[in-house]
Amino acid sequence: MSLPPGFLDELRNRTTLSRVVGRKVTWDNRKSNQAKGDFWAPCPFHQEKTASFHVDDRKGYYYCFGCHAKGDAVSFLREAENMGFMEAIEVLARDAGMPMPERDPQAAQKADRRSQLAEVMEAAVQHYRMQLRTTAGAAARDYLTRRKLTEADRDRFEIGFAPDGWQGLWDHLKAKGIADDLILAAGLAKPSTKGKAPYDVFRNRIMFPIRDARGRCIAFGGRAMDPNDGAKYLNSPETELFDKGRSLYNHGPAREAAGKGAPLIVAEGYMDVIALVTAGFHAAVAPLGTAITEDQLRLIWRIHPEPLIMLDGDAAGIRAAMRLIDLALPLLEAGYGLRFVILPEGMDPDDLIRARGAQSMRDLLGTAQPMVNLLWQRETEGKVFDSPERRATLDKALRATLTRIADPSIRAHYGEEIKRLRWELFGAARPASRRGMPRRAAEPQAPLPVTRTSLLGAAGGAEVEEHLREAMILAICVTHPACVARFESQLETVAMREAGHDRLRQALLRAAHEPAVAADPDAFRNKIAALAGADLEKLMALAHVRIAPPVRNFEDTELATMCLAEELAKLEARRGAAAEVEEAMEDLIGLADEGLTWRLSQAAAARHRAERSRIDDDSDMGEDRAALSAQLQSLIDRAVWEKKRH
């Protein structure tokens, strides 16, 4: 729904941010000045011991000097408690005593209908709970006792019982004055095909209420007491309240526990979740009787960025893991992944905890494997790769799988890990001399006179690398005019450290704006020579430029595009990381130690990722483009090394 103008401003004016945040943190009274609305605490968004998280009640704004989390009361509830936007607004409005704005008539009518259905479901919850306490529920209570569920556990999960009768719930709800259409629309009864009264959906089953993230009962799961029943577990049919593929069992409590730092465990069913929660693993959820759907996976990631998928160790469990991997690959993003916990074969979470205790479960969670390991296992387990053809088949299968990863950075890192695993599997032949003796490493050569007199001779290592990358960028653009138009915005903003390089950059941009010149490579180069002839000669005389594949291959524009994109990205990443470190050092005075450490580590990590990234969509397993990238890097490394030797 849309909010009327001014509603959010009024809500923020009525909300005391420190009161909202204070539910999640402990204020540092030595550092805080509460009389002035100035509060400090350890940050709830990252692990720290010092109070670097600041709340300013007067501005209604928070900021962490460590991890840079910032926002207002709405963003705090969304981040700290995994709430949606409207859910956070409703919570704050309720706390502030503000009525939510009226919705449009159709939306209001639909909301009223859903509220009515939720009330019907709540009445059913109470009826089933009462039935569990009666004589009819004795067998169900015995079963739950054998599963080590105490009365307190039954109350906590609101477990109930549906007696073996056709219209027990129907008659109960009708007696409370609930209309037929609401009972049917809630999925609690079905109309008779024989002209009789509707009959109950759940009969002779232990009942588990399924609640949404807001705590409303939206459905039931029922476990059959009769071993001969065709469906051991039965869920409510889909209704206006319940979409099975978009719901999770124990969603709300698990979200709250995960927000406090508990690992999120995704189990297979209701009893698995209950066993985990009663053993102290409060952030546990389960899909509702089917394989995890894309919508459920996105819900899970909203609760925790790296959930632990717990599966049986049998063949069915492994197949379920592989289906989930195929679902997740195109959806992966930086910071969001999956780890897999494989249970001992023949045991579910309840079996493991009862047989070996909660500590055994904690130990098992510590063995969680990243998704790439299971992906590798699927492609290699039980196979023999004793011929080039079989190894090529493996490479082809892995490439096909990796191309499904949409995020280029993640795809590149998967390619690197796959390459490492291949090395472990296949090894590599070690070269030796004809006599079978190990080869001696070649003695490093003394720097040539040309090296000492080159432009690189007066520069430091970092400056050398930037100079080489600038030169490569310009040389590719001179050789392939089409690249200038494609990367024009980046070329306009990239800073060239050397004056000659900057003159060439400006000449390239001017020439690209003349259609007749830009369309003819020879005319384009002649124009550059006319505008910056001496600088162009100096550039094209550089050894690493002359032998670079994108400069030598005039016809391969695709190759040039890939190389240019990579060089621009690496140059930008290096300079961005350096700027971040410099800024962090300038802010050293008065900045929390952990905040400084965090910023420096993030800058270093960003540079490391950039240095290892690959623009090419294929994995790094011997393809021409990956080899080209490595060759370009080796040219730069060799030039820097020569400078350092000198």
TrEMBL record:
SUPFAM superfamilies linked: DNA primase core, Zinc beta-ribbon
Name of the coding gene: dnaG
Top-level class of the enzyme under EC nomenclature: transferase
Record's keyword annotation contains Transferase: yes
Protein name: DNA primase
Purpose of the protein: RNA polymerase that catalyzes the synthesis of short RNA molecules used as primers for DNA polymerase during DNA replication.
InterPro entries to which the protein is assigned, alphabetical: DNA_primase_core_N_sf (IPR037068), DNA_primase_DnaG (IPR006295), DNA_primase_Znf_CHC2 (IPR036977), DnaG_bac (IPR030846), DNAG_N (IPR013264), DnaG_primase (IPR050219), TOPRIM_DnaG_bac (IPR034151), TOPRIM_dom (IPR006171)
Cofactor binding note of this UniProt entry: Binds 1 zinc ion per monomer.
Family statement drawn from the similarity comment of this UniProt entry: Belongs to the DnaG primase family.
Organism: Albidovulum sediminis
